[in-house]
Amino acid sequence: MINSLSGRFLILTIAFVMVAEVLIFVPSVARFREDYLRTRLERAQIASLVLLADDMIDQGLEQELLQNAEVFNVVLLRDEARELMLSSPVPGPAVATFDLRDPGAIVLIRDAMSRLVSPDDEVIRVIGDPVRAGGLVIEVTMASGPLRAAMLDYGWRIFQLSLVISVITAGLLFLAVRVLFVRPVRKVVGAMASYAQAPEDARRVLTPSSRLRELREAEEALHDLETQLSLALKQKDRLAQLGGAVARISHDLRNILTTTQLFADRVEMSNDPMVQRALPKLIGSINRAVNLTESTLAFGRAEEPAPRLTLIAVADVVNDVVESERMATGDHDISYAEDVPKGLTLRADPEQLYRILRNLVRNARQAIEATGEAGEIMVAAKEEAQEWIITVTDTGPGLPKKARELLFQPFAAGGRKGGTGLGLAIAAELARGHGGRLELLRTGEDGTVFAICLPRGFGLGEAE
User: Fold this and answer.
1) Which residue in 298, 328, 423, 452 has a CA-CA distance of 20 to 30 Å to 270?
2) CA quadruple 94, 100, 103, 105: dihedral sign
3) Banded pLDDT at 133 (limits 50, 70, 90)
């Protein structure tokens, strides 16, 4: 109840109504006190009129008149003469005098609150204007105890009435909030929960129906969001199906192209000049098609498997990569260098680290070969406090601006002609799988430097 919106609204409503009643209570009590004192002055004036009508009244009647007016004595100012009209024994001196002839609101409130907090039964003097021109000024002395008791009784009745009004008001507002706000909000929440169970089902998309403007806007925003999400999920499902189809086609196409390569190798032995001129272009096209299908198959896997981390000798992996690329260099004037400290080990998946380095070194070799000039590729490794760093440096022509903008994005080749754009994307993904990163340190006319940064730690956790 308390943790619900309507429950908290109920409690706040009661509290706020009570605060409002308190603000009303203070001036009400002050007004009640003023009326109480004026009534005592009027009774005292009536009692004095009896004396004016008959100067010879007995002592018993005089005391009865004073008790009825609830005062000790009455002083009336008439014709500039101050007369003690009625009197009785006063239990003590008057401790305070209150003038009701022209009281201010602040003064009335102050005196009323002061009387409420003072529990002593004291003698007070009250001065006021006689009614119906019965004199110039009337003055009485009276006890403060009955006044305070009457004020407390009045305050208690005001409190009870305020409490009843607060409960009734809060109850009505509680019902209104549940009907106008909580119920529509629960409807929206229910629609969201239903949609979450089957977001691909377009029938579960929320249909805006609220008449409240703010809630209607929220429903429309949610409707648009769910519609877009459903379309995105459908598109993702179609892309996944398309990816599966492409993977199957690429697999079959790779087998066909592999067979075509074998036939091309046989045709290469032909002495026909036309065949000899066309054959290099044919073999190049076939090789590019084979590379594309192999890269697509590799990238089209649902996800790369988690790396199996072991301590490996960096020099062995680097040497395997360099030797493989050196064999693929052919007649091109490209030299390879290795700068790996002897005995340096790091924690990585040896197969995946090989793939990362192979992609980087192969890209560097192909970039240098495209220039037709001599070049150099260096693979270096070092150990720092928090990570291992392996760099691949080449003296190629550098990456063009378009390639730098689309770096590490799959199928976004912007550098080498015929490239698929998958090499760097796969390498970056494998590095992230190790908890590390693949960075482009610099590129320009004097060459390019990539860095593989792998964290030093157990698994993918903190550093040793």
Assistant:
1) 328
2) positive
3) low
Domain count, the chain: 3
Residue type, 195: Y
Q: How does DSSP assign 182-228, residue by residue?
A: IHHHHHHHHHHHHHHH-TT-GGGSPPP--SSHHHHHHHHHHHHHHHH
Which of 276, 299, 322 is the endpoint of a domain? 299
Quote the mean pLDDT of the chain: 80
Q: Is the domain of 17 the same as that of 154? A: yes
Is the overall model pTM greater than 0.85, yes or no?
no
Mean pLDDT for the stretch of residues 395-408:
84
Q: Which two tokens stand for residue 248?
A: 């199957």
Question: Is 287 in the same domain as 318?
Answer: no
Judge if 315 and 281 occupy the same domain.
Answer: no
Calpha distance 173→182 (Å, rounded): 12
Statement: residue 258 has pLDDT above 60? yes
Task: Provide φ and ψ at 250, rounded to 5°.
Answer: -65, -35
Q: In this structure, are residues 158 and 28 in contact, taking their beta carbons and an 8 Å threshold?
A: yes
Q: How many helices (H) and strands (E) does the chain have?
A: 11, 12
Residue 236 and residue 150 share a domain: no
Q: Give start and end residues of each alpha helix (H) in 54-144.
A: 59-69, 105-117
Of 412, 251, 408, 426, which is closest to residue 355 (Cα–Cα)?
Answer: 426
Instruction: Please write the tens of the pLDDT for every residue from 309-355.
Output: 899 999 999 999 998 888 878 778 999 999 999 899 999 999 899 98
pLDDT for the residue numbered 9: 72
The pLDDT tens digits for 155-168 are: 888 888 877 887 88
Rounded to whole angstroms, the Cα distance separating 303 from 430 reads 10
Residue 327 to residue 423: CA distance in whole angstroms: 20
pLDDT at 265: 66
H or E stretch covering 82: strand 81-86
Taken in order 419, 424, 425, 429, the sign of the CA dihedral is positive
Per-residue buried b or exposed e for 7-31, using 16+ beta carbons within 10 Å of the residue's own CB: eebbeebbeebbeebeeebeeebbe
